[in-house]
Structure formats: structure tokens, C-alpha cells
């Protein structure tokens, strides 16, 4: 049984990258790399803190092209490089305190993400499973209502990741 349960209607995304698994894992866990590709297109990411170990935290801020700043955090649950990374993602303030999303008062306070990486013939397959964690019915409904936007957003983020990986080889 999977010890990282995701609630019903999880989001499952897969993408192949033409890069070694060790490199793909590194750009997810090294602050020198992570800030160069994570997030929406044309946003910048400032990595304030990145302590990738069980119980450790990523804390950072994203700035939109218009200058709007949003803070977020990951709390790492499992780190098993280079094959698995599990983290709970939340919006936060500058100190890392969990806050409600600025765009929807019913957005889940916590989203669990389970990242797995497998490599075959120099190509790494990434699977990201996730969804609301410790969520209310209203929070699950808000997540489900945003599913197409989430899929589109991750597609753009994964495009940036592919470009960044190509630049690192």
C-alpha cells in the first residue's frame, strides 16, 4: 500500500525529458537550479530557503510580469534521490506560515505532490501525482474546478523544465 495517500480525483501528470534522472532530480532539489524554471511562464522565482530533507522546507516568492508577489512553500515528506520526492505545497507569507490562496478562499491549504522519476536509455520519465491534502469538501471542489488550469500550468512549467535541462547538458 502506498504510504503517501492522495485524496480522490488526484491529478496525475507524466512527461518524458531527454536528460539523465540524476540531473532531473538535481534541478528539483538544488536552489541554484530550481529558481530557473519553476512556476508560470514569465514569472520570476526567488528562492528564500531550500532545505530538501524530510521535514525540511522550500520557501520562495514568485513575481508576476506586473510585479504581483505571491509566497509559497513546500514541506518535504520524503526525499529518495534520484527517484522520488514527496512534498506538501501551500501558499504562505514571508515567514513560511500557511495562508489562504489569494485567488480563491476555498483553495486547499495543502496540496500533496508525489514526484517519481524513472530512466531508460537516457530518457527520464517524470510522474507527478497530487491533490488536496487534509482538505474539506469545498476545498476539494475548488481544486477540481481548477483542474484544466492546473494541467495547463504544469504543462508550461514542464516546458520550461525541458528547456532548462537542455541548457544544462
Automatic annotation (TrEMBL):
Please state every residue range assigned to the domain named Activator of Hsp90 ATPase homologue 1/2-like C-terminal.
19-165
One matching Pfam family is AHSA1
Looking up CDD domains in the UniProt record yields: SRPBCC_CalC_Aha1-like (cd07814)
Give the protein family. Belongs to the AHA1 family.
Which protein, by its recorded name, is this?
A: Activator of Hsp90 ATPase homologue 1/2-like C-terminal domain-containing protein
